[in-house]
Amino acid sequence: MSLQRSKKNTGRAGTGLVALVGGLAFSEFGSAYMQSVYGPLLSQLGVRLHADAAQLNWISASYLLSSVILIPVLAKLGDLYGHKRMVMISLAIVTVGAVIAAFATSFPVFIAGMLVQGAVGALLPLEMAIVRDRAGKHASKGIGLLVGCLGAGGVAGILASGYMGTFLDLTWVLLAPGVVVFISLVLIIFTVPETTVRGEGRVDWKGAALLALGLALTLYAIMNGNSWGWLSPAILGMFIVGIGALIVFVRVEKEVSLPLIDISLVTRGGVGYFLILMLLFGAQQLGSGPIASLFAASKPGKVGYGFGLDSLGVSLTIVPWVLMSMVGSFIGYHLVRRFGQLTTLISSNVLVVLKFALLIAFSTNLPMFIAVQGLGGLGVGVFTAVLPAIVVQLAPMSASGIAGAMYNTTRTLAGAVGGAVFAGIMGAMFVSGTKIASLESFYVIWGICGALSLAVAILLPFSKRFGTAQTMLPGDTVNEPDLGYATKN
Predict the structure, then answer these.
(1) Which residues pair with 430 in a beta bridge?
(2) What is the pLDDT of residue 15?
(3) Fold identical between 1-201 and 262-489?
(4) What's residue 5's pLDDT?
(5) DSSP notation for 200-251
(6) CA 423 to CA 90: how far, in whole Å?
(7) How far apart are CA 327 and CA 141, in angstroms?
(8) pLDDT tens, residue by residue, 35-53
(9) pLDDT for position 464
(10) Which CATH superfamily is domain 262-489 in?
């Protein structure tokens, strides 16, 4: 009798585990779907919102900026008040953001929707905490499934938005990810239990406010420097206040017991050096996201460059990047085992440098344009699979989770800064007599991106820490795949 009860309970537990992971996996699918829909639609968004190429680059920059602030805040609130609760709140926030973006008819309102959607970045760490708390010995497999669904959702979002954008009104195309995210919210309400462990302490609201103020003012000044004048009182004032707020933020984070971002970790064991490398790499990886999509959609008969692709055509140029980045993330571990960390990381950056060089050299060749997206995706996938493992293992054992968060924060921040800088470049270099970004602006941005990866390749051998971090098995750390409009090229 007791044996039968045990089997029955085991069956219920297994069913519950499937429902738990299934609900969370669909949530990750939906979040990746939402993040990836905008890239193929940038040209149509420009027409609808009366936005030029420089402004459209802020679609990714605003989302990344918001994520830098919201991810640590929502993650900490999950530790304090329940991870399921914060997942539901995050999904509700993201749904609202998607609706705002879908119905927006002006660029500022659309950007407001993107800022709200930045909460999607907190889903993976929150859901990982749920799986670790509830899945027991199956946690690693569960987390692997979550990450796998990110890749699937990213590809689905790119292809679906590209296809629907050719025959549906843009509002309906933009509403689709909101519907998917809302469905995932309903599933989680009924299939996912709350975590049982609660953390202590409080949210560093002061640090969050200072970081938000500093980044917003500094990046907004970069965005408008060309049009307002770099020496205008408004631009100088924003730079002074923004940078001042960031300086105060660093001092505050060093003094509080539970900082939003652990600044002291940067100085330990060589972690800071690799975070600097990620800052350089992330600026080109995430900051240049919309550039390839804008170029592919540009009409050569009108502006003198591009391929004049519709949304479906643009989506097909993006898919090779996403697929090859997933391949790179899977083979990174094996390359490290065969060639070592240093050689693998340098080689991955060489691939990225080659990608941008070929983009400049063959900017009128569509097959080459598509092929080099895959080449760059492979390099990015390998690099972002290997580097976070080094960062986590160089940190003290008690700070491994914080180190992983620092890596993701650095990467996201780099993308926001890169996006702002690239928007400034496109806003300063026009086709004569128009406000259309010139071909030279694309060349300059691609050249900067290639130079950043080249700098990383050159700086890597100067680290003394290779060999002190052990090679990690796939799944030992979770590095969110590169998906969506913010990570296309």
Answers:
(1) 437
(2) 53
(3) yes
(4) 37
(5) -S---HHHHHHHHHHHHHHHHHHHHHHHH-TTSHHHHHHHHHHHHHHHHHHH
(6) 28
(7) 19
(8) 889 988 988 999 999 988 8
(9) 65
(10) MFS general substrate transporter like domains (1.20.1250.20)
